[in-house]
Amino acid sequence: MLIMTLVAAVVSTAAGAAIRAWAFAIFAILVAIGFGSVAFADGSSLIGAFASGIAFLVLMEIGYLGGVFLSGFARRSARLRQNSSAADSVAATSERRQG
What we know:
The chain contains three helices and no strands. The chain is an all-alpha fold and 99 residues long. Helix 1 crosses helix 3 (46-98) and helix 2 runs antiparallel to helix 3.
């Protein structure tokens, strides 16, 4: 169960960088329903299986939000590096023209 939880967290984080929120929401709900069903089939009570499914859904959503944050941060820092290097080359060109 721990391995399954870790895999879900990693997949959710990767999905945050790749797919839209509505698509992930549908996917996460279906996975949480499946996880709750498996927990119920293994002998958990209905309330326990429901709680397990909701906990799994929350874990997946947190992983997705982390992936969205990390991918946005990576894109923003890459854009800043690109703009910084373009500004440096413009400054170097203008210094050569003045000197």
